[in-house]
Amino acid sequence: GAVVSQHPSWVICKSGTSVKIECRSLDFQATTMFWYRQFPKQSLMLMATSNEGSKATYEQGVEKDKFLINHASLTLSTLTVTSAHPEDSSFYICSAMTGLSTDTQYFGPGTRLTVL
Amino acid sequence: AQSVAQPEDQVNVAEGNPLTVKCTYSVSGNPYLFWYVQYPNRGLQFLLKYITGDNLVKGSYGFEAEFNKSQTSFHLKKPSALVSDSALYFCAALDQAGTALIFGKGTTLSVSS
Which residues of A touch B51 (CB under 8 A)? Predict the structure, then answer.
């Protein structure tokens, strides 16, 4: 149980284009989902927290107009990187928290974004 | 400020030997502590957590962790390491609000055969 998927697992795009990454909780309803960014050999940096049906809460320094987060249902959150640039290249990981357990986050497999 | 520290960038151990990956924390209130493992190009897998109760917490794949309040530590342990345990390990704590995870920088575990 508590499986989280991400799609796509790897995406390459041209500079200036927008990329959408999906995060789905497959066997539970996720009241809260999180988006992280991870640089090579570094820890995870929380980008934003999203609750179903409400606006995401962004961490300091994260541009909300650049990283659009939508949590339209209890099983799906999307992260759209708008007008992507090479410096946005990174590993993006989502996690989800079930309504039953408000302390444990279950992580998706991650999406590697490469912007040319 | 709340923080999680993993003092070792890398831990090397021979297969069959016991392993310890260290973690110390600085959080307000009662700590909620976690260990996650990450394999290359993969997301994080939950290993175990401490919320309350016994100081020795048992988790997945034979791992356990010992909570020590006086030393503010939560070291990850395994009695007999496997080559397949080689991965990146993250210690984490819930922040004061109880929603966001604060991660340590990670420790690479390398188990040699």
Answer: 103
Tell me the average pLDDT of chain B.
Answer: 92
At residue B85, what are phi and psi to the nearest 5 degrees? Answer: -80, -10
Cα separation, B36 vs B65, in Å, equals 12
Give contacts of B 46-105 with A, CB under 8 A.
46, 49, 51, 90, 94, 98-101, 103-105
Rg, C-alpha atoms of chain A: 13
Question: Which residue type sits at A78?
Answer: T
Residues in chain B with CB shorter than 8 Å from the CB of A109 are 42-43
pLDDT digits (tens, 9 = 90+) for A27-53: 888 888 999 998 877 888 999 999 888
Q: Is the pLDDT of residue A101 over 70?
A: no
- Residue A64, pLDDT > 70, answer yes
The answer, yes or no, to whether residue A98 has pLDDT greater than 90, is no
Q: What span, in angstroms and rounded, lies between the C-alpha atoms of B1 and A103? A: 20
Return the bridge partners of B73, or none: B24, B68
Q: Are the beta carbons of A105 and B101 separated by less than 8 Å? A: yes
Q: How many cross-chain Cβ pairs, A to B, lie less than 8 Å apart?
A: 49
DSSP string over A48-86: EEEETTSPPEEPTT--TTTEEEEEEETTEEEEEE-S--G
